[in-house]
Amino acid sequence: MGFQVQEFNSNRDWAEMKRGLEDVLENSSYVYRQLQSIGYDWRHPLYWIGRQGHSQLALLLLCGGLPVDTLDGEGYTMLHGAAARGHLQLVRLLLGRSADVDTRGSSGDTPLMRAAQFGYLKTVVVLVQAGANTTARDSGLRTALDWAISLGRTELVQYLVQFPH
Prior knowledge:
This protein has helices at residues 11-27, 29-37, 45-52, 55-63, 78-84, 88-96, 111-118, 121-129, 144-150, 154-160. It is mostly helical. InterPro entries: Ankyrin_rpt, Ankyrin_rpt-contain_sf.
């Protein structure tokens, strides 16, 4: 079973994708039970899957036809979520499936910025090595380095300062 909608630019498209995702999960009783047991939140499912580091669920969705850079209803991708929680296995899986390393979230933030905000040096390194733009700015005009400085992430500042900013 594959997803038919390739672009999710409207509430109707998002609702259709969400129904398709729910059908896949309900038809996979093990996955559905696992999601129910950990309090799955449908408001931002792709970001949540990334944040929780659910590599197997991500792979199930990707193999089912979900485009790797799909934005969820809150405007985030699985890569944003995985980067925000330092889930290196999932970050690498998504990058290996050609995820856009510089994809923008609802506030203009990139996965690199999310990793910098939450202090995940190894994730920052992987994203930079994958070509993340260190000069990208979010809607507040902050770069990943700006986030690292403002949050006192010394190791990240020492790493990021060597790149254009």
